[in-house]
Amino acid sequence: MIAGLERAIAASGVPALAETGCGEPACALEQALQPVGAAGLVAHEQLKTGVFRLQFEVGYGTRSVVAKRMPPEHARRNELAIRRWLPELGLGAIVPELLGLAAERSGRWVWHVYEDLGPWELDPRVPDRGQVAAVVHEIARVHARFVAQPVLAECRLHGQDSGVAFLVSSVRNAIHGLEQLRAPRFALSDARAEVRDRLLDRLYRLRAEEPLRVRAIEDWGGPETLLHGDLWTTNTFAEPTAAGTRVRIIDWDRAGVGPASYDLSTFLLRFAPEQRLAVLELYREALAEHGAALPGRRELNLLFESAECARYASRAVWPAIALLRDGAAWGFGELAQVEGWFAALAPVLPEDPA
Fold it and tell me: Using omega within 30 degrees of 0 as the cis cutoff, is the peptide bond preceding 184 cis?
């Protein structure tokens, strides 16, 4: 037993800890921590749900790691991205070291233990041009290097399809779920019925626009490549070193295959509108080094809008299912949030005067 570990995890609200002896989640985490050589727990911090910064006594002093609890499919994508996909193409330096992993006996959760990268997340509120340029350069390198690579077949098999299929299936699945939220099967207040109807109106329009958006992705989206799938700036690190900025990208839970615009949209939206063109130009310049190019601003805005709409539609699917299956109290709050995202949808880039 690692002294203090089970108590720290139990305090976080992670379920299914045994009252006596070694609780299942703590046991799995201990197994994942074996390569670290951890003894007593010195300090801990919950970074977000299921993610902890843990500092341990080790033989030579103390060591800080990050432990993450996730579903098996997310764990498998992270493992493959970090240990196989990216290293195979010479990109292993941009991911954190995966120190250990172990599954809980229930099979529902897997623990990963990573090196702690420290407080070097890219900050879009006060962006440093050099750090942004370094991160954008690595993103472009991943996108360019994976084009037409045989390993994309494995990325698609174990990852998400974030291209045309994702847009089409997300819209249709959301419509199927929301259409069932009607009497006599489901009783709604007038306010909730209005939320459902506004969402359905958005989704019907998206379905009608499907041929246009599919053609745009096929014509302007460029070749399919490996996508991070959740490219928030909080998942990118830019650490200043004597040799220059060291970039790492974490949390490959939603990695998969699709057009680079899917990742680029997520990344650009983390910056203030007036900063996005400058960030886009950095990406365009980095991509040009690999002999690739981007379409114009108008075409990119349509690609970005389609990516965001696909994400929004996919986020409406599971609350609808939870409401229909379990009457989940949180379901309509989630649907109202998605409807708000659609209402606030605006072009990622300013319109091109030309």
Answer: yes
Query: Which among 277, 248, 300 is positioned nearest to 142, based on CA atoms?
Result: 248
Here the tokens at position 120 are: 């070097």
Put residue 291 in one of left, alpha, beta given phi > 0 → left and psi -120 to 50 → alpha.
Answer: left
Over residues 178-227, the pLDDT tens digits come to 999 998 888 889 999 999 999 999 999 999 999 999 999 999 999 999 99
What are 312's two structure tokens?
A: 């929004």
Q: Are 37 and 100 a contacting pair, CB within 8 Å?
A: no
Positions of the chain with pLDDT under 50 = 16-21
SS3 state at 44: strand
Q: Which of 115, 143, 172 represents a domain boundary (last residue)? A: 115
Distance, CA of 166 to CA of 319 (rounded, Å): 18
pLDDT tens sequence across 239-264: 999 999 999 999 999 999 999 999 99
List the CATH number of the domain containing 193: 3.90.1200.10
In this structure, what CATH number is given to the domain that contains residue 44? 3.30.200
CB atoms within 10 A of CB 215: 11
Q: How far apart are CA 157 and CA 32, in angstroms?
A: 26
User: What domain range is 316 assigned to?
Assistant: 129-343
Backbone Cα Rg of the chain: 22
